[in-house]
Amino acid sequence: MMPEDTSSMLERAASVQARIRQGGRWYPAMMTVYAVVTVALVTWLPLVRSNWAGVAFAVVAVAWAVVIFAWKRGKGVRPARSRDTRRWLIPWVVLYSTGVFWFGPTYLGRAVGWWALMGVVVASPAFVEATRAWLRVRR
Amino acid sequence: MTHPRHRLNSRIHTPVRFSLMAALAATGEAEFKVLRDTLEVSESLLSQHIRVLEDAGYVHVRKGYVGKRPRTWLSLTPEGNAAFGEHCAALRAITTTSVTSFSGQAGTEMPAAADLRRDGA
């Protein structure tokens, strides 16, 4: 095999990779938005002081999950496989459950600022995944 | 057998299969129709090549649905990722070998091959 044929194959393959990576750029953007929404939802929690506010919170949280799930299903390039999602989702669930159901009510009272900070901690697995994904698709 | 061509993987070393492996190495998984459009091949030809790579254990095929529409998702297995990396290394070794080694004529070094990335999970 002549080196120039090999170079052509490598260049064509690099071009294919660039197109595929471009098709996957939605994923880090989605993960960034997911992390920001996590911070917003956790920050909102101490402000939920009535049943109606609680219902509104639950509706918004569920609607958000449905929208994001439906939107990503139609994407043809997925930088993360389903099993890769567990890498950030499990820590997120653990942090969210621990923070929202125990740490926040026990130690933070209704201090919105501290709940916002805890929201950043809860969202950190999603931020890390977004950063990792940006590094993969940036070329 | 010291020439790098002996390290080429015959199951990967066709233009369509090599490009298919390259595409899958660049992401977690990709849908069949996206690969068909990116590689600019027919569905039947793409299916044939996928079958070869699946039989070799290099590609994982997953069937799913988006609404009521069936979808086929492909991804590289760990063995496929490793095989692709080794194949690329052999190709790079070939392209960086001086032309004078093959033809005996005075010539210039070939430019370094495109740096293909393996985006392992």
What's the architecture of the domain at 26-99 in chain B in CATH terms?
Answer: Orthogonal Bundle
N-to-C SSE string of chain A, H for helix and E for strand: HHHEHH
Rg over C-alpha atoms of chain B, rounded to the nearest angstrom:
17 Å
Mean pLDDT metric of chain B: 82
Q: What is the name of the CATH topology of the domain at 26-99 in chain B?
A: Arc Repressor Mutant, subunit A
- Give the fraction of residues assigned to helices of chain B: 40-55%
Quick summary:
Chain A has 139 residues and is an all-alpha fold. In chain A, 83% of the residues lie in helices and 1% in strands.
Polypeptide structure, described:
- Helix content of chain A is 83%, strand content 1%.
- Chain A has 139 residues and is mainly α.
- Chain A has one domain (3-137).
- In chain A, helix 2 runs antiparallel to helix 5 (112-137).
- The two termini of chain A are 29 Å apart.
- The mean pLDDT of chain A is 88.
- Chain B has 121 residues and is an alpha+beta fold.
- Chain B has a domain at 26-99: Winged helix-like DNA-binding domain superfamily/Winged helix DNA-binding domain (Arc Repressor Mutant, subunit A, Orthogonal Bundle), CATH 1.10.10.
- In chain B, strands 1-3-2 form a three-stranded antiparallel β-sheet.
- In chain B, a hairpin with a 2-residue loop joins strand 2 and strand 3 (69-76).
- Chain B is elongated and about 55 Å long.
- The relative contact order of chain B is 0.18.
- Classes of the chains: A mainly alpha (139), B alpha+beta (121).
- The A-B interface holds A 1-4, 6-7, 9-14, 16-17, 19-21, 23-24, 73-74, 76-81, 84, 136, 139 and B 5, 8, 15, 18-19, 22-23, 25-31, 33-34, 38-39, 66, 73, 75, 88, 91-92, 94-95, 97, 99, 102, 110-111, 113-117, 119, 121.
